Amino acid sequence: METTGIVRRRTAERVRDALGRLVTERDVWVSTAHPDHGPHQVPLWFLWDGRAVWVCTSASSVTARNVGKEPRVRLALPDTFDVVLLQGEADCFPDQEVTGDAADAFADKFGWDPREEADAFLYIRVTPRTVRAWRGEPELRGRVIMRDGMWLE
């Protein structure tokens, strides 16, 4: 791994950078697991509402089935150098029962409204309990920037 030139950021800088990416990024890897069938990972569009990540998937998808059985999930932004990993629990909302604010914000960001589709969709809200962020080996130490749902400073 190339580490030349990496300047180790303070925790506050990592929090600021991670929050910036949560607002601007489009895709997140969603990792779920089923007690009988094991892990499953899929990239989905996401929305950060300032407290939680929202994704939307077919109500019949493996992801939807998994979070129904095991709500603990991990999320990862797609950059393998500037890593942001979130871990939390999923709350599920059928497309016709999701709060208007979340669904409207999701539709505004992507120009697509799952509530208007013929098939059923499930909105999944993941409120992070732990967030880790690092850029290269020099930042591995101190990579936890949220613990127990509280941002560190």
Question: What can you tell me about this protein's structure?
Answer:
- Residues 28-134 form the Pyridoxamine 5'-phosphate oxidase N-terminal domain.
- InterPro entries: F420H2_bilvrd_red/Heme_oxyg (IPR052019), Pyridox_Oxase_N (IPR011576), Split_barrel_FMN-bd (IPR012349).
- Pfam families: PNPOx_N (PF01243).
- This is Pyridoxamine 5'-phosphate oxidase N-terminal domain-containing protein.
- It comes from Streptomyces variabilis.
- The protein has 153 residues and is of the alpha+beta class.
- The protein is globular.
- The chain has 3 helices and 8 strands, in the order H-E-E-E-H-E-E-H-E-E-E.
- 22% of the residues lie in helices and 42% in strands.
- Strand 4 (72-76) and strand 5 form a beta hairpin.
- It has a 6-stranded antiparallel barrel with strand order 1-2-3-6-5-4.
- It has one domain (11-151): Roll (Pnp Oxidase, Chain A).
- The chain has helices at residues 11-24, 62-69, 100-110; strands at 27-34, 38-48, 53-58, 72-76, 82-94, 121-135, 144-147, 150-151.
